[in-house]
Every structure is written in structure tokens, then in C-alpha cells.
Write a structure and sequence with these properties.
The complex is a heterodimer of chains A (225) and B (296).
Chain A (H helix, E strand, L loop, with lengths): L3 E10 L2 E11 L4 E5 L6 H8 L7 E6 L12 E4 L11 H12 L3 H10 L14 H13 L5 E5 L7 H16 L3 E5 L3 H7 L2 E6 L2 E4 L16 E2 L1
Parallel strand pairs in A: 3-7, 3-8, 5-6, 6-7, 8-10
Antiparallel strand pairs in A: 1-2, 1-4, 8-9
Helix pairs in contact in A: 3-4, 4-5
Chain B lengths: L2 H8 L12 H18 L1 H24 L8 H29 L4 H6 L5 H35 L4 H29 L2 H29 L4 H11 L2 H13 L7 H38 L5
Helix pairs in contact in B: 2-6, 3-4, 3-6, 4-6, 4-7, 4-8, 4-10, 6-7, 6-11, 7-8, 7-10, 7-11, 8-9, 9-11, 10-11
The chains are: A alpha/beta (225), B mainly alpha (296).
């Protein structure tokens, strides 16, 4: 059974129909990368899968149930941009989200380590963009979620952060998680994804541009759709 | 114990696996987080200090007007102080509330992605800010009380307590308005502009309109219009309740006379405070209803 099932998803904001009958199915152990121009609907797709946006029509199921409106239980989500409350430390933020998800402290530490978060006692307001993004990724990956929904995971990351993300994603897929992530980094997409799509005109299409980076570098073997 | 364990435990994480939070658990945890965050923000402490200093300055200025320099007792300054409370408290509640309810980019999304409901997060934020602002008000009023006791002798403690109670009611009411403004506008800058407009209309303009209507309408219609208008605005209800509570309802003119005549001072006091509570509950209920369909 697919971990994520989307059939004929349509979503309109005012006069603009962003998603026009989108289909997607992601099995456990698969990572799907979604590329596309700015405003093409990549974030809308992830928000719909996270229960933040309501589909106008079509079927959306994450782990066998509709994510709207209660959010994706069992899913780890990272929005494109996050501002945490500035007066809390990184450790307090992780502790809060651990409690929110019913995760034991023993599962918090590996998530922090996986993203090289060595600044647990620093207030979030003093962190750089990259450090904040690593914290947001740790929140998403914490507790070994069965589904990962990650919006532009590497925009602010340095090389260490990018490596952390790649390793964490690989480990998640090995334990059977399903992942959907959006990115503009073509080379990294080829390395991480098991399937790559381009979101264009409200629907997912095969990404021909992958030819240019070669598929042989794919750590997980890119399958062209 | 590692730094991670210390900070995560401080934030409430358990050392053993727990169940996901239910609605009440979400409300409690979000409230706890927002309360702690608001208390750590320095501007709240500055507002407490500003309130205390302004109150003392008003006491001294009042004495200058009477030609005998020195500090007036609290009982003589209380009428000015309720107006000061009604200037500062609603603006604080609106600004803090609107900023918090609209939230930082991505943070609401992250909370909801944990399976929390929109209403539970909104209720948690409301309770968190309410508790932080109440504590700050208590700090400010206590500071005023101590200073008055030192410079003008201990007096009128019940009036000081009533000032705190009515200030707390103002916080609850304007925080509810902030929640409503935030869920309707859904945008930080638009919400803040709307909040300032609400404050200006409710605290400044409304009173002038009420006075104009009182003059324009013939008696006894103007009296009933006044009573109705007072019940339509939390700031007026709170001010009137305070005046009735401290026994200076004469200064309310025909409104106070009408309320006193039909309900007695105790009845008027309760009616006005129940009115504020209903106002707060109604605004919050509407905000929570709208938030159910809130998309991000």
C-alpha cells in the first residue's frame, strides 16, 4: 500500500488554479523529488499533503487517511521558511516538538546529532538561517516518521548541512519511510531521489533536465518518469 | 546530563515515549510555551515599569493642580489611573495578541503538522498571552501600590484591587479582539493596522461619539441610548464598572444615574463585568470558528 496517494488533486487560489488534477503515489522506501519554477505549486502540494491546505477536489491520503484538517499524524514536515520563537533555545524547541508528537527524549538526541546541532543552549533568535534550517529539519525527522514532507530542505544549508540532510534521508528510506521533497538543486536531486518530477502547469511530469547531470551519480538510482 | 537532555527536558519532553497530545494537552503546552516566551521578551517588563512611573507622575501632577506639591493618595488618583489602564492595556493586548496570533512564518504550519488542531493552538496562544499579560498587570499595579504606600501612606487597597480586576478584564476583552482581527486579516501588517484602528475607535473615538449622542438626543431617550452604547464597547463597560465599583458613579452623569436607578450599584457592576466577559467569549468563539478553515 502506498504511503502517499494523490489522485486528481485540484487546488485554486482565487482566479489561479495551481494544481490541475495532479496524481502521485509514493511507496515506503521511496523519495520523490519535485522540481519546478517559482510559483508552480510545489509548496502547495506539500502543504496539501501536510493538512495545511484543503484540496478543492480529488483524493489525498497520507498513511491511509486524509490529512485535512488535523495535520499529517505520523508525518514529519518542514516548511520552506520557519521562524521559531526567538527566546527559546534550540534544545527547548526540540523538547517542545518532541512532547507535541509524543516522542521520547531518547529519540530527540539522534535527530539533533543527525543534523549536527551542537548549539542546544543558544537562543533560536541568535541562530543563522542555516542553523535554523537544520533545527527545522531535526524537528521534521525526529521520532522516525513514516512520511517526510520537506520543502526546499537545502536552501540555507552549508556543505555539512547538505550532507546531514542526505544521510538522514537515506537512513529514513532504509527504514521504510516515504519522502517527498522540493528542491532547485538539480545535482543533489539526482543523488537523493528515487523518482524526480517537474511540476508544470499544475501537474507532475517527468524531469528531462536530469539528462544533463547524468543519472549514474544517483546514490539511490534515479528513475526517470 | 547533556545540554540537549537538559534543554529538552526543561521544555517538557519526557524520557519515556508518551502518547500524542490531545486537544487539552495541546492547549496546555502551547499556552505554556507562549507564556514563557512572552515573559522572556523584555518589552513586557518595560511596559510594567512605564505604567508604574506614569502612575506616580500622575499622582504628583494631580497635586500640583491643587496647588499643594506632593504625592496624592491612590484614592484621589484612581480615576486618572483607570483611564491610563484603558489607554495602555488594550494597546498592549492588541499588539502582543495580533503578533502572536498571526505568528511567525512557518511556525503555525509546523505546529499544525504535528496533528494539533487550529482551535487548540489558538486557544493555547490566547491563554498563554492572557496569563503573561495578567502577570505583568499584577506586577505594574503592585509596583504602583508599593510606591503609593511609601510616598502617600497606605490607603484605598480595595480600589487598587478593583483597578487590577478591571485591567484584567480589559486584557481578556482586547486579546479576544486581537484573535478575531488576526484570523480575519491573516497578515501581520494588515492585522496591526486593523488593531490600531480598533484601539483608536474603541478607546478614543467611541467615548466622543457617546458624548455627542447624549447631547443630541432628547431625554429620556438619550439615557437609554447611553446605556446601550456603553454595553457596546468593552472600554466603556470597564471604565463604568470601575467608577460604579469605587462609588463615584455620579461622575458618569446620566448613564451612571440610569444604571444606578434600575440595577443599583452592585447590579450595575455585575452587569457591566458580565458584559465584558460575554464580549470576550463571543469574539474568541467567532475567531476559533473562523480558524477551523484556516489554510496555510
Amino acid at each position: 500500500m502506498a504511503a502517499i496517494e494523490v489522485v486528481s488533486l485540484r487546488k485554486r487560489f482565487g482566479d489561479v488554479e495551481v494544481l490541475k488534477g495532479l496524481d502521485l503515489s509514493v511507496n515506503p522506501g521511496e523519495a520523490v523529488a519535485v522540481r519546478g519554477a517559482n510559483g508552480s505549486g510545489k509548496s502547495t502540494l506539500l502543504r496539501t499533503l501536510s493538512g495545511l491546505v484543503r484540496a478543492d477536489s480529488g483524493k489525498v491520503q497520507v498513511l491511509g487517511r486524509s490529512p485535512w484538517p488535523a495535520g499529517g499524524r505520523g508525518a514529519g514536515y518542514m516548511p520552506q521558511r520557519v521562524e521559531f520563537p526567538p527566546h527559546f533555545t534550540a534544545g527547548e524547541i526540540l523538547g517542545f516538538f518532541a512532547k507535541a508528537r509524543g516522542i521520547a527524549l531518547s529519540e530527540v538526541e539522534p535527530a539533533a546529532r543527525a543534523f549536527a546541532i551542537t548549539y542546544m543552549e543558544r537562543p533560536v533568535g541568535s541562530l543563522s538561517g542555516g542553523m535554523t534550517q537544520r533545527l527545522a529539519l531535526a524537528v521534521a525527522f525526529m521520532g522516525a516518521p513514516k512520511v517526510l514532507l520537506v520543502d526546499e530542505p537545502t536552501t540555507a544549508l552549508d556543505d555539512v548541512g547538505v550532507d546531514c540532510f542526505g544521510s538522514a534521508l537515506e537512513a529514513a528510506l532504509l527504514r521504510g519511510a516515504a519522502a517527498v521533497f522540493t528542491t532547485h538543486r538539480l545535482a543533489l536531486t539526482a543523488h537523493w531521489a528515487t523518482r524526480v518530477y517537474r511540476l508544470e502547469d499544475g501537474a507532475l511530469r517527468g524531469d528531462e533536465s536530469l539528462e544533463s547531470v547524468g543519472q549514474s551519480g544517483a546514490g539511490r538510482g534515479v528513475s526517470h518518469v | 546530563m547533556s545540554a540537549l537532555r537538559t534543554s529538552a527536558l526543561r521544555a517538557g519532553a519526557s524520557s519515556v515515549p508518551a502518547l500524542r497530545m490531545g486537544t487539552l494537552g495541546t492547549v496546555k503546552e502551547v499556552a505554556r510555551m507562549e507564556f514563557a516566551g512572552a515573559l522572556r521578551a523584555s518589552w513586557l517588563r518595560w511596559m510594567v515599569a512605564l505604567f508604574a512611573v506614569t502612575a506616580i507622575a500622575m499622582s504628583y501632577a494631580g497635586s500640583l493642580a491643587s496647588g499643594v506639591p506632593g504625592f496624592q493618595g491612590f484614592s484621589r488618583t484612581s480615576v486618572s489611573l483607570i483611564n491610563l489602564v484603558l489607554l495602555i492595556v488594550p494597546s498592549l493586548a492588541l499588539v502582543l495578541g495580533i503578533s502572536g496570533f498571526v505568528g511567525r512564518p512557518g511556525y503555525w504550519e509546523l505546529l499544525l503538522a504535528q496533528g494539533m488542531t487550529r482551535q487548540a493552538v489558538l486557544a493555547g496562544k490566547y491563554i498563554g498571552y492572557l496569563a503573561a499579560l495578567w502577570l505583568s498587570l499584577l506586577g505594574g499595579v503592585s509596583a504602583v501600590g508599593v510606591v503609593f504606600a511609601l510616598v502617600a501612606g497606605a490607603n484605598a487597597w480595595s480600589q487598587l484591587a478593583l483597578l487590577a480586576v478591571e485591567g484584567a478584564a480589559a486584557i481578556a476583552a482586547y486579546l479576544s479582539v486581537a484573535a478575531l482581527v488576526a484570523v480575519v486579516t491573516r497578515d501581520q501588517s494588515k492585522a496591526l493596522i486593523a488593531g490600531v484602528a480598533v484601539w483608536f475607535l474603541s478607546v478614543i473615538v467611541y467615548d466622543l461619539a457617546v458624548a455627542s449622542i447624549a447631547v443630541a438626543l432628547p431625554a429620556p431617550a438619550n439615557v437609554w441610548a447611553l446605556v446601550g452604547l456603553v454595553l457596546g464597547n468593552p472600554a466603556d463597560m470597564i471604565r463604568t464598572a470601575f467608577f460604579v465599583g469605587v462609588g463615584v458613579s455620579d461622575s458618569l452623569g446620566p448613564t451612571g444615574a440610569a444604571l444606578g436607578h434600575f440595577l443599583g450599584s452592585k447590579g450595575s457592576f455585575y452587569l457591566l463585568n458580565v458584559g465584558v466577559a460575554l464580549w470576550s467569549a463571543a469574539c474568541l468563539a467567532v475567531a476559533m470558528r473562523i480558524s477551523r478553515r484556516w489554510e496555510f
